[in-house]
Please model this.
Amino acid sequence: MTIIYNIYIFDRHCECIFYTEWASQNSPLTARSGQSADAATAQTTARGASSDAQDRRSLDQPRPTVWPSSANSTHGSLQRNLPMEEHAKLVYGVAFSTRNIVNKLAGKDGPQGGNPGGFMSFATNTYRMHYYESPTGVKFILNTDPGTTSMQQVLEMIYRNIYVEYVTKNPLFNPNPAKSTPIENDYFRA
Amino acid sequence: MAKQYRSIGEEVWKNKVEKVNAELFIFTYGSLVVQLIKDYEDYHSVNKQLDKLGYNIGVRLIDDILSRTNLEKCKDMRETAEVISKIGFRMFLNIAPSVSAWSADSKEFSLILDDNPLNDFCELPPRAVQGGLWYSNVLCGVVRGALEMVGLLVKVEFVRDVVRGDEVSEIRVRLEKVLDEEVPVGDD
Model:
């Protein structure tokens, strides 16, 4: 049975535009000082039983918190969740560097990026990290239990059916290369 | 290669794309241009606005194309041109422009549109022709936006247009630069 721990989505400007987690004890979301409202909801004990969308809906759990959220960012920089930002940067760095190594070793390296070397996932004792990059530079990172073999198809499906459908087709979402905005969409969160 | 792209384009058009009434689309576009002209009064600004509109469309369109087809990275401009004409235009407008007039270094090409559906019910008054209005300039913006998201900085312009009295519509696409990927900001 596949257990999903969390998911990150980065846009082509290296910014984390979406993060959600299920069943995490030391959540970086709760590491901020003085934020009680989000801390309570972040301690969700929901377990993503499988990545199948139907299963998730039928499990009837409280919705996991999503980060970043504009409700915080409009109140000024005091509310910036620094541990979370650093966490996201670290994750991005790992994925970015590993993908570059894979590309170099495969001999298909180039300054334009993309994923010609085909970096798909790596595993440790406690988790496996899956990676998928679209040709437009949108990166999807998914952490699951180490027993899962491949989530390439799942990540591709997330890109095609969910990201493209609800995010790019949403007229209020700004894919402008100059700014990066978080994914605010309720449909996307579901 | 060309045959393969053509068949992919046709297959996507037939199966995977939701279709909307062409006349509705054409009339909506026409009234949009008219409104822009009324607002701006200067035809060059209208051209720029249409290009900007197209750019925003193109930036999202590319994700749509990529998600519906399993396209891989194009190796050079010639493949890119084929993909744009046979798959991109086919998917959204059901037309098949032809690619021609390659420059010596393969960085520039022309898309020849025999029948542009946007022009179907359109007649330009003489002052618009003199003022330099490119009626379908939104298409230039779309190509520019889409290519920028996959890392190609291009300049796209109309050269000839049926609405202005030429025989065919021609769009010239020029590769300015291949964009590098962004590296995350370091903590210094």
Notes: The helical segments of chain B are 2-15, 22-40, 43-68, 77-93, 126-131, 137-149.
